[in-house]
Amino acid sequence: MNEELLLRKRVDDWRRLEVLTAKADNGLKRLSGEETVELIRLYRKSSSDLALLATQTSNFEVVDHLNDIVTRAYGVIYRKERRPLGAAILTGVRDAARAFRKHWAATALSTAIFLAGTATSFLSIRGNQELRERFVSADMEENFAHWKSGTHEARQGGESVGMTAFYAVNNPRVGILSTAASVTTLGTLTAYLLFTNGSLLGALAADMVSVGKLPFLLTSIAPHGVSEVGGILVTASAGFVLAGALIRPGKWTRFESLRLAGKDAFLLLVTGLTMIVIAAPIEGFLSFNPVIPSGFKVTFALASLGTWAAFFIGFGREEPVLPLTE
Question: 180-208: b or e for each residue (b if 16 or more CB lie within 10 Å)?
Answer without folding.
Answer: bbbbeebbebbbebbbebbbbbbbbbbbb
